[in-house]
Please model this.
Amino acid sequence: MYEYHGAWWVYYRDDTGPHRKKVAEARDQAEQVAARVNSQLASNKPTLLTFTPIGVADPMPTGGKRLVYVDPASNAVVVIDGIVVWAYRYRAE
Model:
């Protein structure tokens, strides 16, 4: 854990290589994150800062089709058309 430009960063290594992540503005919060990462590394679990890709069950549509997805949990509508993606946020009332 180290301070750089007013923020606290965590540096660690795992099976995938070295990782540097900005974790907090305050030292006490950074210490809590560093302790959690250390315990996860010691037990061979993925850390909370590790990106874990997930598999996609359905392939993306092809042939000029447009895909629209509504996510009510985050009040967002996502429109995918080819390689262009639009994300619209709305206010739930």
